[in-house]
Design a protein that fits this description.
about 775 residues; mainly beta; seven-stranded antiparallel β-sheet; 47 strands; flat
Length: about 775
C-alpha cells in the first residue's frame, strides 16, 4: 500500500507542473510588449502648405508648411498591429532636461507641368542637419520641441520661389519624414509619408478697360497706300449700278424721301463676332453714289462688287528678317542657359614661391561690377526695345546698388519711349516714369523713398498709348484708333545696413502690353472691325544683388568685399496677329475684304539666366601696386567681305565688357565711321584703359568680351565677336605679377602689344580681332592724326 502511495505521489509531482504550464499558456496573451509607464505616442502629418500672401502673377511666393501633431491612444509595437507611419515617441512626462525630435521636409517646387517647375529655394533658419539633395531637391531638417506638441502644430517657413509666378495652374508637393534617433542619412524607423499636394492658381493681372470717350484725339497717323500689298489685276471697264436694281429695298421716310434701311448685322471672322452694325437709314441717292464710287475704284484695280471674290491685302513689313532676328536672339539666350564653357586658363593662387604675405603697404580699392542688356526686336513698324542695367559699387562705408530698366515701343512708324522706366536716383530713392492713358496719353513720374528695410509691391499702374489713324482699302478710306494698353508692376525689397557696411536690393519689374483698335469707314455701306491682338511686351525681369564690406581686424589680413548677384528674365515680344475684316453691303450682294497687318509667333524666351549667378564672391579691397589694361583697336563685323565686296550691313556700336579678378566694367563705344573697326575714326584714338589692382603676388584673371550691334536694313542685330580659337569667343588671360607675364588666349608680357584673332565670321566678313597691352604707364601720346 505504501509502495502504491509513493508511486502515485511521484506521478503527481511529475505531471502537475506540465498541467500548470498548460493552464498558464491558455490564459496569457502571447508576447506581451510591456508598456513603459509615462510614455506618450504621437502622430505628425502635413496639414497644409502655407503662403505668406495670396499668390499673384508676376510676384515671388513665400512658402511654409504646417505640421499637425495628434496624440495616439494605441501604442505602436504590439504584435499583429500595424505601426503608424506618422507615429513617434513623445516626452515621457518625467523630469527630463529637454525633449526634441528631428524631422525633415522636401518641397518639390511649383510645378506647372511635368517638364516645367519653378524651384523653391530655402532661405530660412539654419537647418537641423547639413542640407542634402534627394532627386534634385533639397531636404531641410528642423527640430520639434515639447512646446510644439502642446500647441498641436509647427509652422516651418523659409522657402521662396526662384521665379515670379505665372498665371497658370500650379501645384506644390511636400515630402515629410521623421527621424527616430538615427543619423539623418540612414533609414528612418518611421516610413516616409506620401507626398502632400496643394494645387492653386495665381491671381492673374487684370487690365482695366479704358472707358470710351477719354482717348486723346491728337494728330492722325496716316499709313500710305505703298505700305500695303494687294494683288493688282487687269482693270475692268466700269459699268455703274442702276436705281432699278435696288427698287425692292427703297422705302420712304416720314418726309417722303427715298431711303434705304441697312438692318443690324454682325460681321464674323474665324467663327467669332468681330463687329455689329446697328440698324441705320441712308438716303437712297447717297447709297447709290457710294455703291458706284466703290465699284469704279475697284474696277481700276481689277476687282468688282459683282463677284464673290474677297479682297485680301497684306501690310508690308520684313517677315523673313523677323524670323532671322528671332533665330539669332534665341541662340544668344540659349548660350547663356547652357553649361558654361571650361575656362581657357586656370588662374588661382599666387606666383610661384610667393604667398599672401609677400606684398607691400596697401591702399584701398573701390569695388565695381556692371551688367547691361540692350535687346531690340522688330523694326519701326512693329518693334520693342528693352534696356536693363545693374551697377554694384562701393568703397568701405559707401556701398551702392543701381538698377535701371526702360521699355520703348515702335508701332506703325511711331516711336513711343519710356513706356516704363525705373531709375535709382540716390541710395534710398527710386524714380518710376510711366505712360498713362487716363484721361489721355501722358508721361508721369513717381518717386519712392526706401527705408532701412523694405519688402513690398512698389508700383502698379495701368499704362498705354493711342492715336487716331487711317489707311486705304482700295478706294475706301478706313479711320479709327490704334494703340496699346496693359499693366506695369514693380516689386522690390532691400536692406541698407550701415554697421557693418552692407546693402542689398531686389527689384522685379513686370510689364505687359497688347494692341487694341477701333475702326470706322468713310462710307455708310462699309463696316469694318479690327481683330486679334499683338502681345507687344510681356516681360518679367528679376534682378537681385548684395554687397558687404568686411573690415580686416588684423594688420596681416586683408579687407575685402563680399558680393552676390543674380538675374533672370521671362520675355515674350511681338507675338500674335492683327487684322482688319470688313464688308461692303450693297443689299443685292456683299463684298468682303481682309487686311493682315501682322501675323507672327514672335520672340519667346522662357525664364532664363541673364548672366552667371554669383554667390558670396570674395574680392579684395586693397592693393599694393597696379597695372593698366589698354585696348587700342577692335575689328568687328564689317560691311565688306574679304575681297571688298559690299555687304548690306551697317555697324552701329560695341558693348565692351572687361572682367578683372571678379570686378566688371562695361562701356558703349560708338562706331563713328560705320566701318566695323573701332579705333580708326576721329574721336576713337583714345585707348580704353582699365586699372588692374595688384595685391601681393596674387595671380589676376582677366577677360575681355565685345558685343557688336549692327543693322541689316531696318532690323537691329547683335553678335559676340570671336577673339579666340576653337569653341571660345572672349579673351581670357592670367597675369603673374612675379614674372610680369600672362598666359591664356594669348601669351605675352608687359608692354607687349598683342592682337588676338578668332576663327569665326557671321556674314562672310573678315575675322574678328582685338589689339591690347598690359603696362605700368597710364598715358600714351596722341597719334599724329589727332595732333
Amino acid at each position: 500500500m505504501r509502495t502504491k502511495f509513493l508511486y502515485l505521489f511521484l506521478m503527481f509531482i511529475l505531471v502537475f507542473p506540465s498541467f500548470l504550464d498548460a493552464q498558464m499558456k491558455t490564459t496569457t496573451p502571447p508576447t506581451i510588449k510591456s508598456v513603459d509607464i509615462g510614455k506618450t505616442y504621437w502622430c505628425a502629418e502635413i496639414e497644409d502648405i502655407l503662403f505668406s500672401k495670396e499668390p499673384d502673377q508676376g510676384q515671388k511666393l513665400s512658402v511654409g508648411v504646417r505640421i499637425r501633431f495628434t496624440q495616439k491612444k494605441t501604442i505602436p509595437g504590439i504584435q499583429y498591429q500595424k505601426i503608424y507611419d506618422c507615429a513617434f515617441e513623445g516626452p515621457s512626462g518625467l523630469a527630463v532636461k529637454s525633449w526634441s525630435k528631428t524631422m525633415s521636409l522636401r518641397l518639390i517646387g511649383i510645378k506647372y507641368s511635368e517638364n516645367e517647375t519653378n524651384l523653391l529655394e530655402y532661405y530660412g533658419p539654419t537647418p537641423a542637419f547639413p542640407v542634402y539633395h534627394y532627386s534634385g531637391f533639397p531636404v531641410i531638417g528642423f527640430v520639434v520641441t515639447e512646446k510644439d506638441l502642446q500647441k498641436g502644430y509647427i509652422d516651418v517657413w523659409g522657402w521662396v520661389s526662384k521665379e515670379p509666378l505665372q498665371c497658370r495652374d500650379s501645384a506644390i508637393y511636400a515630402s515629410f519624414s521623421i527621424y527616430n534617433n538615427q543619423h539623418y542619412k540612414q533609414q528612418n524607423e518611421c516610413h516616409p509619408h506620401p507626398d502632400f499636394k496643394k494645387s492653386f492658381h495665381p491671381k492673374c493681372l487684370e487690365v482695366s478697360k479704358i472707358p470710351e470717350g477719354i482717348l486723346k484725339k491728337g494728330r492722325v497717323l496716316r499709313i500710305p497706300q505703298e505700305k500695303f500689298l494687294m494683288e493688282k489685276l487687269p482693270p475692268i471697264k466700269f459699268i455703274g449700278f442702276q436705281p432699278d436694281e435696288f427698287a425692292r429695298f427703297v422705302t420712304k421716310d416720314k418726309d417722303g424721301k427715298e431711303v434705304i434701311i441697312l438692318k443690324e448685322k454682325t460681321i464674323w471672322f474665324n467663327d467669332k463676332p468681330l463687329i455689329t452694325r446697328k440698324t441705320k437709314t441712308v438716303d437712297f441717292q447717297k447709297f447709290l453714289k457710294e455703291v458706284n464710287e466703290i465699284e469704279e475704284g475697284l474696277n481700276k484695280l481689277g476687282y468688282s462688287l459683282r463677284d464673290n471674290k474677297p479682297i485680301k491685302i497684306k501690310y508690308i513689313y520684313p517677315r523673313e528678317h523677323f524670323k532671322l532676328q528671332k533665330e539669332m536672339i534665341s541662340k544668344d539666350f540659349l548660350k547663356k542657359v547652357t553649361i558654361p564653357l571650361p575656362s581657357q586658363v586656370t588662374c588661382e593662387g599666387y606666383s610661384e614661391g610667393k604667398s599672401e604675405l609677400s606684398g607691400r603697404p596697401k591702399d584701398s580699392v573701390p569695388f565695381n561690377w556692371e551688367w547691361k542688356c540692350d535687346e531690340s526686336f522688330g523694326n519701326e513698324d512693329f518693334g520693342v526695345k528693352l534696356v536693363s542695367f545693374l551697377n554694384i559699387s562701393g568703397q568701405q562705408n559707401d556701398l551702392n546698388i543701381n538698377p535701371f530698366f526702360r521699355a520703348n515701343i515702335m508701332l506703325f512708324g511711331e516711336k513711343i519711349e519710356d513706356i516704363l522706366k525705373i531709375d535709382k536716383i540716390d541710395r534710398t530713392k527710386i524714380k518710376v516714369t510711366y505712360l498713362t492713358l487716363t484721361p489721355f496719353p501722358e508721361w508721369k513720374n513717381v518717386e519712392y523713398n526706401l527705408n532701412q528695410f523694405y519688402e513690398k509691391e512698389l508700383f502698379k499702374r495701368n499704362i498705354g498709348w493711342n492715336t487716331e489713324f487711317e489707311f486705304p482699302v482700295g478706294p475706301i478710306n478706313i479711320k479709327g484708333e490704334i494703340g496699346f494698353k496693359g499693366i506695369a508692376k514693380i516689386d522690390a525689397y532691400g536692406l541698407l545696413n550701415l554697421s557693418p557696411p552692407e546693402t542689398k536690393i531686389g527689384i522685379t519689374p513686370f510689364v505687359e502690353l497688347k494692341t487694341y483698335g477701333e475702326l470706322g469707314a468713310s462710307y455708310e455701306i462699309v463696316s469694318a472691325g479690327i481683330g486679334g491682338e499683338i502681345i507687344l511686351i510681356r516681360d518679367i525681369l528679376d534682378l537681385s544683388a548684395e554687397l558687404k564690406f568686411m573690415q580686416s581686424s588684423k594688420a596681416e589680413n586683408y579687407s575685402y568685399f563680399l558680393f552676390s548677384v543674380n538675374g533672370t528674365n521671362d520675355m515674350t515680344l511681338l507675338s500674335g496677329n492683327l487684322y482688319v475684316w470688313g464688308e461692303i453691303d450693297y443689299l443685292i450682294g456683299s463684298k468682303k475684304f481682309e487686311i493682315e497687318f501682322y501675323s507672327f509667333d514672335g520672340l519667346r524666351i522662357p525664364s532664363s539666366a541673364m548672366f552667371n549667378k554669383i554667390i558670396n564672391k570674395k574680392i579684395y579691397a586693397e592693393k599694393d601696386h597696379r597695372l593698366w589694361l589698354k585696348i587700342d583697336k577692335i575689328y568687328g563685323i564689317t560691311p565688306y567681305a574679304p575681297k571688298n565686296e559690299k555687304l548690306y550691313i551697317e555697324p552701329v556700336d560695341y558693348y565692351l565688357s572687361v572682367n578683372i579678378d571678379g570686378q566688371s566694367y562695361t562701356k558703349l563705344l560708338k562706331d563713328y565711321n560705320r566701318d566695323g573697326i573701332w579705333g580708326n575714326a576721329i574721336g576713337e584714338y583714345e585707348d580704353q584703359i582699365f586699372e588692374i589692382p595688384l595685391l601681393s603676388y596674387k595671380k589676376i584673371p582677366i577677360s575681355i568680351e565685345v558685343l557688336q550691334r549692327y543693322k541689316i536694313g531696318t532690323l537691329e542685330f547683335k553678335n559676340t565677336l570671336d577673339f579666340a580659337k576653337g569653341i571660345w569667343e572672349k579673351v581670357e588671360l592670367c597675369y603673374d605679377p612675379a614674372t610680369r607675364t600672362f598666359i591664356g588666349t594669348k601669351s605675352g608680357s608687359e608692354d607687349e602689344e598683342i592682337t588676338s584673332i578668332g576663327d569665326t565670321s557671321y556674314w562672310g566678313e573678315r575675322n574678328h580681332g582685338i589689339k591690347f597691352k598690359l603696362n605700368q604707364s597710364y598715358f600714351k601720346p596722341a597719334p599724329s592724326k589727332a595732333k
